[in-house]
Amino acid sequence: MRFARFLGSARSAYAALLIGAFAACAAGGASAADGTIRQWQFAKAADGFELALKEIARPAPQANQVAIRVHAVALNRRDLMMRAGRYGIGGTQEGGVPISDGAGEIVAVGPGVTRFKVGDRVAGIFFERWIDGAPSAEVLATARGGNAGGMLSEIVVADPARLVAIPSHLSYEEAATLPCAGVTAWVGLFKRGKIEPGQFVLLEGTGGVSVFGLQFAKAAGAKPIITSSSDAKLARARELGAFGTVNYRANPDWQNEVRKLTGGAGVDQVLEVGGQDTLPKALQALAYGGHIAVIGGLSGFASDVPVGALMGLAAQVTGIYVGSRADFEAMNAFISEHKIKPVVDRVFELKDAPAAFAAMDEGEFFGKIVIRL
Ligand SMILES: NC(=O)c1ccc[n+]([C@@H]2O[C@H](COP(=O)([O-])OP(=O)(O)OC[C@H]3O[C@@H](n4cnc5c(N)ncnc54)[C@H](OP(=O)(O)O)[C@@H]3O)[C@@H](O)[C@H]2O)c1
């Protein structure tokens, strides 16, 4: 009887050991059992950089650090520029870890950590040192996926002050899309644009920033008008609640169509991502007192300031550079309140990261491209 009880408890102890080993493996990724993790790194190539998959020692958190098991990362246009070695702020580093945006679960905490605990679901902030308040040279000097380590790694060790909790209704794939594109759209519309219900909002193209802009504007009770080169993508935009859609390829003077959709008054807010080809047209579609959030340069960065048109419309133009941790947290509160689900177009596996970069390059997507780790 006693022997049988011993056998029973030995069996449960063995089972517990197995479950522990399995959990550690699941938390640490496929290769974690031998104390290593998989991580993509930038490696010098003839034409900029290429992606190299490395197996490295599993990093452990030191005092005031946490280890995150990254479950998903999302691509931004900047990640392509980083790979090409054509991006500012410190440039691309040999051995640097790509991709600014990622979400995961905290699997270990070092001594002194109080902000998060094991099991918490988090995302990294884009500018690691921009916690709150106005931008400065110091806080804009380092950004994830560039001169600060990126998220394309099974485990990332980080200062918990540089992380935010992610909304509970989002999957890791959805939450991974928030740090750059989401925060940028939110800052452009809410913090700088001070969007109001009923306003007309212009979104250019159906990439990451613009689709977030569409969802945020709709949730704020505004009327989003979105352009695209593809009628199929415009149909998807209408399903998401677009008030109006215009094919900018079929209508080279799309700004006139946009103005017509506003009844002639013009748009009150623009998330200007197109750059030199779109800024002059966006201005022609702008209402008196309207606001243009200058964000991107998909067609090349615009370099002339159209002073006359801006003064004539008593318009506002603000330059946006993502945002702070406080902006990220304010956006998360809005996303949670309105149960917004970021649009993930496609999910790639970790081993297929180069294919995810190629898909971003091709532009045949709507919203965001994600890699699952
Ligand atoms: N300042 C900042 O803080 C900040 C933050 C994030 C991004 N950005 C910049 O903002 C821009 C957009 O970023 P993203 O991540 O949203 O890009 P993205 O996801 O790569 O957007 C790609 C989409 O943009 C549309 N597009 C391309 N060229 C266009 C043009 N000439 N006119 C209108 N739409 C065009 C296309 O949409 P269709 O296929 O529908 O035609 C394309 O599929 C990039 O230049 C990026 O570097 C800046």
Bound molecules: NADP nicotinamide-adenine-dinucleotide phosphate
Detail the poorly predicted runs. Answer: 1-33
In DSSP terms, counting alpha (H) and pi (I) runs of 4 or more, how many helices? 11
> What is the approximate shape?
globular
Amount of helix: 25-40%
Task: Give the structural class.
Answer: alpha/beta
Q: Tell me about the biggest sheet? A: 7 strands, mixed
User: What gyration radius follows from the Cα positions, in whole Å?
Assistant: 23 Å
Q: Mean of residue pLDDT?
A: 91
Tally the beta strands: 15
Order of helices and strands: HEEEHEEEEHHEHEHEHEHEHEHEHE
- Distance linking N and C termini: 48 Å
Percentage of residues in strands = 15-25%
Describe this structure in words.
This protein has eleven helices and 15 strands. α11 links the parallel β14 and β15. 46% of the residues are buried. The N terminus is likely disordered. The strands form three sheets. Strands 3, 4, 5, 6, 7, 14 and 15 form a seven-stranded mixed beta sheet that branches. Strands 10-9-8-11-12-13 form a six-stranded parallel beta sheet, sandwiched between helices. A two-stranded antiparallel sheet has the order 1-2. The longest helix is centred in the first third of the chain and has 27 residues. The termini are far apart. 32% of the residues lie in helices and 24% in strands. It is α/β, with parallel strands linked by helices and 373 residues long. α4 packs across α5. Bound molecules: NADP nicotinamide-adenine-dinucleotide phosphate. The site of NADP nicotinamide-adenine-dinucleotide phosphate has 32 residues, from α2, α4, α5 and β9.
